[in-house]
Amino acid sequence: xxxxxxxxxxxxxxxxxxxxxxxxxxxxxxxxxxxxxxxxxxxxxxxxxxxxxxxxxxxxxxxxxxxxxxxxxxxxxxxxxxxxxxxxxxxxxxxxxxxxxxxxxxxxxxxxxxxxxxxxxxxxxxxxxxxxxxxxxxxxxxxxxxxxxxxxxxxxxxxxxxxx
Length: 164
Hints:
The protein has 164 residues and is α/β, with parallel strands linked by helices. Helix content is 29%, strand content 16%.
């Protein structure tokens, strides 16, 4: 896993420019990820790479295109000091795991990294950095591949319509 390092306040327009919001295919969106911000990203990102960022990652609009583009690029984890709330939830909804790490700024760009959410740390350069615990129900949604797949895996619920 290679890290792609970003700073504070990376907004959804930086992740996927607004002109691509008519696209819904994750792979096509991925080909435009960070266009105008970090142009080499789309061409060089590999399956399993990790984004590491500062504070307030994913701020801006509530579009789910941003995490969808990252998912299409093969990103599975985003590590940041903090996330915009709507981005955090949208990431989980599409099967990405946002991880809060107060030491994210200490992780260098391009470095190999291992992510151990169940053990509560990430490791880079032989150093373990603690991460905030991931609630079990959110981990279940991510493990299922996102909210839609998670909902499909649930047993059917019968509802009462009031007529018998």
